[in-house]
């Protein structure tokens, strides 16, 4: 039975979630030092044990400090860690902790302070700095009340030193201390920059201090419920107008598909609750929900938004704007396009705010009028992290005064005592155990790291006479060239917003004109696009290898300044989708539609067979079929393409990618990619072309929502004509429609092996075109011949059959076609031409 329905796919998706989640959850830190300073015994908090202070004394440069206690901190916090605040170590001289680091990378440094009175020490009077060799974490610090500070720094050597420096006539203290590895994926090097708009690079060198970590629309999420022991506090106290926001919650629905956010980015209890606009009773609602945070002016901040669409019933229903202060940092955000149409998927975005003079930072969400969406907006979580200034300081104090530099160094380097050794051994075992997982994370991280591209055999060409000596920028070349950023700027009138011709998940597409007058389409990658960099590289690699009349040509690319810009030939008539519905363009005739389908099939056929290894497009849809000035079809967007099938066999690619409504259900089930997945998607396109409606239309009655399901229902009844585009009514010859419908039906076969190759599809479409032109309509053979039906049993043994080569059909590598099937179709065509 046919199983290609949207509901079915969603169901599969839900089934897959636990599988993804068990890969994504839990992180075991390579380094983990937890010290309950001043405590004579180990202290258990949640499932962690903070070691007694004497066990940590080997880490200290001057162990002979004062150990203080006072039970007045008994009820200092309600979160189960108040025991940590009851004891402290008092440092009367500069003292250094030295931690041995087994795995370089970012580490949390968490400091706990509670100012109680012990004998003649009133901790409220302490005044000190805390620093690492490269960064000042706290300067002139005087914790007046309970204070918990969280920092993270990238440790690039085998030790991490943390120095406590009391100021003149004062002292320092610490109630508890954590040094713990952070998963590499948590903070990557890049973010979008807010002011000026662009991209920010270099987060890995930043020391960060968490200043706000908020769970929108929900309660406190305590460290026990967070894989990285973070605490998320409720947003109510930050809301500027509490009455504009509502809480929503659906924690069970949160999904973490492979390749996206993991449970370590934020737990389900954060993604599963949200604040939303209180707009349900008023469809004309037009206001922002705003939160206001106190920040230290003069510093840059990393702002991380956590989103998860737990409110929509179907994709493409929720559009909203996201603001930081007065900057609209994400206009018209449609989360479903960022998460492959799968709702309730965890998704986050990072922004760097340049230093502001104000001590207030505002974050707002508000409705977007695009697509007449119902006004609504959501936010699930928010983190605001302070970045070190150019002096390497997170405090106004630029550096620790030299007069109070570390004095005694006698115990530096004595690190691994017996008890520490034991815990290190445990940690080592755990590291080995989780090595596999860490490799996986490493891959994820690497996929976001920029590696300069080397295509065309490693030579990188430069174009643009104005920018370097050499050739002029020109579309005439056969190779794609690295293009100077300045040339792209000029071609697009400096990315003039009014020249935008499209917006996709990858970024904006601009119209442009090169200095030789050639029109081009310039796709500028959004640096925060999750799939961004990998797709950028794939696209360049694929398009540099393939040249075909029915594939969109890449003219150049630009990777300067961490830009991800692709320059294509300009396709005057836009997308096939735009000509089918939505844009109100003149309706295409049946003949034009058939010719477009034939052109696209040729492009795909070339991809599948024109190269030593088959290339699977993976995102075949009407929006990726472009039309030139003569309505000739070209296949575009190779960002998701894979060469197959070996990649498949190693199961590297298990993440299901593609577009909702076009996805091959078998690919979903088995996570294995073949050319037949493209055939499935192309079958959906064929029905789309015939019916001129979106493949998923949630506004329709339940049984009509999914086009593939709906069209197959009518096709099976033999009444496809009931649902065709009204503009085509009475204009398609029944034989042509029947042939077309059968072809599409075969493409949507449940199992890949039962689907025809694109080559077969191509021939059948040619045939449907011939039938439309009426040359065959009296052929006595025609009614009894089901070309596709006869072909499919042969699909598997076509490989070594000699084939009629026919330049007209551009069979550059025709061995994908069955000689039998081909000659059979061919004979019919020959017959038709004879008349
Ligand atoms: C305290 O914790 C350390 C490791 O953190 C462990 O080696 C030691 O056995 C513990 N001591 C007690 C008394 O539980
Ligand atoms: C607190 O410190 C005193 C010595 O100053 C010691 O006798 C007592 O046992 C300590 N209490 C706790 C709970 O650590
Ligand atoms: C404990 O601290 C409180 C205030 O923080 C103080 O009033 C009390 O005297 C202290 N107790 C001791 C034994 O120092
Ligand atoms: C400790 O210092 C704080 C701040 O100066 C002061 O308010 C408090 O009274 C002092 N406590 C004692 C016991 O001296
Ligand atoms: C801390 O010490 C520094 C340097 O001696 C001084 O400038 C600052 O005012 C002190 N802060 C407090 C709160 O005592
Ligand atoms: C830490 O810094 C080093 C060198 O600057 C870099 O190679 C590494 O990727 C960074 N790690 C993280 C997690 O940022
Ligand atoms: C949202 O939840 C918080 C507690 O988590 C509560 O204080 C607040 O009143 C709720 N807001 C609404 C509008 O229900
Ligand atoms: C963790 O989350 C669960 C479910 O939301 C909740 O029942 C539990 O109380 C939470 N635990 C803590 C310590 O917050
Ligand atoms: C939302 O906030 C932004 C930034 O402050 C502002 O430009 C916009 O006009 C606000 N929208 C509404 C509806 O108030
Ligand atoms: C933070 O410190 C690092 C290392 O000292 C430095 O490279 C970086 O530029 C600093 N950040 C800023 C915003 O100045």
TrEMBL record:
It is a single-pass type I membrane protein. GO terms for cellular component: membrane. ATP binds at residue 523. GO terms for molecular function: ATP binding; protein serine/threonine kinase activity. Keywords: ATP-binding, Glycoprotein, Kinase, Membrane, Nucleotide-binding, Serine/threonine-protein kinase, Signal, Transferase, Transmembrane, Transmembrane helix. It is found in: Membrane. The chain crosses the membrane at residues 412-435. It comes from the Eukaryota. Coiled coil: none annotated. The keyword Cell membrane does not apply. Pfam families: Malectin_like, PK_Tyr_Ser-Thr. Residues 1-26 form the signal peptide. Its main location: membrane. Residues 495-768 form the Protein kinase domain. This is Protein kinase domain-containing protein. It comes from Ilex paraguariensis (yerba mate).
């Amino acid at each position: 039975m046919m199983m290609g329905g949207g509901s079915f796919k969603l169901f599969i998706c839900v089934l897959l979630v636990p599988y993804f989640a068990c890969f994504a959850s839990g992180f075991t830190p390579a380094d983990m030092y937890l010290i309950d300073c001043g405590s004579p015994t180990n202290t258990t908090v949640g499932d962690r044990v903070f070691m007694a202070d004497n066990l940590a004394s080997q880490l200290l440069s001057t162990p002979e400090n004062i150990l203080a206690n006072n039970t007045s901190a008994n009820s200092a916090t309600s979160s189960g860690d108040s025991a940590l605040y009851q004891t402290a170590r008092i440092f009367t001289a500069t003292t250094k902790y030295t931690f041995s680091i087994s795995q370089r990378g970012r580490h949390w440094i968490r400091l706990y302070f509670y100012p109680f009175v012990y004998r003649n020490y009133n901790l409220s009077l302490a005044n000190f700095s805390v620093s690492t060799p490269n960064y000042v974490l706290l300067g002139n610090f005087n914790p007046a009340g309970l204070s918990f500070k969280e920092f993270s720094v990238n440790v690039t050597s085998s030790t991490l030193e943390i120095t406590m420096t009391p100021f003149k006539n004062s002292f320092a203290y610490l109630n508890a201390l954590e040094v713990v590895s952070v998963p590499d994926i948590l903070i990557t090097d890049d973010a979008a920059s807010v002011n000026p708009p662009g991209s920010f690079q270099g987060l890995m060198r930043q020391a960060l201090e968490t200043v706000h970590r908020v769970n929108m629309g929900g309660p406190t999420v305590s460290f026990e419920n967070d894989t990285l022991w973070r605490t998320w506090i409720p947003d109510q106290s930050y809301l500027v107008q509490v009455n504009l926001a509502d809480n929503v919650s659906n924690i069970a629905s949160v999904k973490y598909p492979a390749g996206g956010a993991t449970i370590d980015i934020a737990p389900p209890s954060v993604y599963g609750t949200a604040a939303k606009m209180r707009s349900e009773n008023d469809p004309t609602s037009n206001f922002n929900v705003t939160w206001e945070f106190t920040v230290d002016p003069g510093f840059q901040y990393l702002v991380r938004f956590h989103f998860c669409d737990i409110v929509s019933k179907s994709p493409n229903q929720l559009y909203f704007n996201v603001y930081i202060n007065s900057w609209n940092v994400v206009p018209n955000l449609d989360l479903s396009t960022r998460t492959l149409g799968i709702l309730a998927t965890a998704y986050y975005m990072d922004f760097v705010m340049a230093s502001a003079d104000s001590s207030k930072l505002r974050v707002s969400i508000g409705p977007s009028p695009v697509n007449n969406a119902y006004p609504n907006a959501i936010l699930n979580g928010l983190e605001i992290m302070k970045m070190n200034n150019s002096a390497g300081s997170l405090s106004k104090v630029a550096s620790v005064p030299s007069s109070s530099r570390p004095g005694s160094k006698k115990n530096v380097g004595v690190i691994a005592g017996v008890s520490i050794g034991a815990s290190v051994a445990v940690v080592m075992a755990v590291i080995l155990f989780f090595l596999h997982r860490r490799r996986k994370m490493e891959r994820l991280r690497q996929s976001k790291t920029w590696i300069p591209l080397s295509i065309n055999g490693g030579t990188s060409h430069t174009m643009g006479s104005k920018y370097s000596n050499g050739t002029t920028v020109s579309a005439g070349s056969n190779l794609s060239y690295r293009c100077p950023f300045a040339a792209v700027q000029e071609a697009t009138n400096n990315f003039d917003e009014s020249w935008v011709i499209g917006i996709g998940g990858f970024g904006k597409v601009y119209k442009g004109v090169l200095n030789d007058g050639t029109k081009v389409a310039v796709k500028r990658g959004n640096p925060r696009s999750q799939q961004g960099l990998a797709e950028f590289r794939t696209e360049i690699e694929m398009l540099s290898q393939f040249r075909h009349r029915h594939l969109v040509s890449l003219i150049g690319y630009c990777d300067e300044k961490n830009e991800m810009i692709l320059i294509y030939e300009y396709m005057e008539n836009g997308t096939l989708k735009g000509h089918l519905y939505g844009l109100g363009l003149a309706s295409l005739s049946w003949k034009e539609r058939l010719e477009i389908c034939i052109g696209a099939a040729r492009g795909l056929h070339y991809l599948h067979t024109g190269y030593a290894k088959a290339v699977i497009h993976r995102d075949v849809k009407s929006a990726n079929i472009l039309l030139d000035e003569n309505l000739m079809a070209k296949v575009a967007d190779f960002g998701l393409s894979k060469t197959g099938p070996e990649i498949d066999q190693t199961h590297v690619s298990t993440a299901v990618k593609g577009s909702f409504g076009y996805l091959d259900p078998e690919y979903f089930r088995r996570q294995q990619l073949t050319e037949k997945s493209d055939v499935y998607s192309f079958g959906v396109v064929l029905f789309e072309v015939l019916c001129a409606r979106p493949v998923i239309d949630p506004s329709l009655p339940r049984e009509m929502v999914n086009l593939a399901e709906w069209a197959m229902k009518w096709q099976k009844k033999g009444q496809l004509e009931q649902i065709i585009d009204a503009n085509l009514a009475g204009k398609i010859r029944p034989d042509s429609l029947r042939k077309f419908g059968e072809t599409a039906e075969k493409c949507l076969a449940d199992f890949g092996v039962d689907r025809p190759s694109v080559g077969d599809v191509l021939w059948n479409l040619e045939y449907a075109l011939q039938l439309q032109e009426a040359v065959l309509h009296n052929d006595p053979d025609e009614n009894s011949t089901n070309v596709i039906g006869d072909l499919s049993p042969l699909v598997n043994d076509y490989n070594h059959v000699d084939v009629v080569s026919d330049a007209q059909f551009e069979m550059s590598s025709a061995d994908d076609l069955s000689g039998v099937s081909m000659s059979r179709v061919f004979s019919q065509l020959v017959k038709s031409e004879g008349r």
